[in-house]
TrEMBL record:
<dbReference type="InterPro" id="IPR027417">
    <property type="entry name" value="P-loop_NTPase"/>
</dbReference>
<dbReference type="Pfam" id="PF13476">
    <property type="entry name" value="AAA_23"/>
</dbReference>
<dbReference type="InterPro" id="IPR038729">
    <property type="entry name" value="Rad50/SbcC_AAA"/>
</dbReference>
<keyword id="KW-1003">Cell membrane</keyword>
<keyword id="KW-0410">Iron transport</keyword>
<keyword id="KW-0813">Transport</keyword>
<dbReference type="InterPro" id="IPR051535">
    <property type="entry name" value="Siderophore_ABC-ATPase"/>
</dbReference>
<feature type="coiled-coil region">
    <location>
        <begin position="103"/>
        <end position="134"/>
    </location>
</feature>
<dbReference type="InterPro" id="IPR003593">
    <property type="entry name" value="AAA+_ATPase"/>
</dbReference>
<keyword id="KW-0472">Membrane</keyword>
<keyword id="KW-0175">Coiled coil</keyword>
<keyword id="KW-0408">Iron</keyword>
<keyword id="KW-0406">Ion transport</keyword>
<feature type="domain" description="AAA+ ATPase">
    <location>
        <begin position="33"/>
        <end position="240"/>
    </location>
</feature>
<protein>
    <submittedName>
        <fullName>AAA family ATPase</fullName>
    </submittedName>
</protein>
Amino acid sequence: MHLKSIKYIKPKNTNKYPFNIPLFKDFDILEFRTPVTIFVGENGTGKSTLIEGIAVGVGSITIGDDSIDYDKSLKAARELSKSLKLIWNIKTKKGFFLRAEDFISYTKRIAEIRNELEEELKEIDNTYDDRSELSKSLAKMPYNNSLYELKKKYGEGLETKSHGESFLELFNSRFVPNGLYILDEPETPLSPMKQLAFISMIKEMVEKNAQFIIATHSPILMAIPEAAIISFDEYPIKEVNYNDLEHVNLTKDFLNNPGQYLRHL
């Protein structure tokens, strides 16, 4: 594991967000004892707040249009990161931070870049109409190289695939050994079968010394083998067993007898 633990240093002013949420009243230290740590809990319990603060503290790169240092939606996370002391085994700069909602804007941006490069190639054809083929080829070279790199990474384009397929394609192209991956609800675009494929990718990267911190509502991702599951449903937060999770048991009961729940709605 790369990140060993995080210690919360309570600031002087705890009356403003995010320091005033219940999570931080009894929060002291969180130790990462396995390569995969899962954050679980109801909406509003602080999972995303903490995971964003960790990502800023780590200095993760993001999948999206804005840098983690300038993304307006991470303003509170940047404040929180100042109160988080990160203890490392071996610090790594590899990996990334991903929120599910950032993926859509990222896909659109990749498509825009591809279109811009293709438009530049067309413009060179017009501008260099009376020039030699060699001159034209030299002018096109940087744009063709960029298109080649995009195709090498993402095939014909993330936008040409379904949401779930393109999401997995992104991970497949960006996962590298020895990385620290901080993921907030990565199951959002994934079908149950695609979630199983995603778990397979995670297991493969763990074997290559990658570490994952994942916030999720998916009982499938919660079942990642040997993952440490941290529950945010009670404070202070604590590690729990998969079969003791209310989320898991509610899902099991619903699937066994949906009518029992639906008739009360």
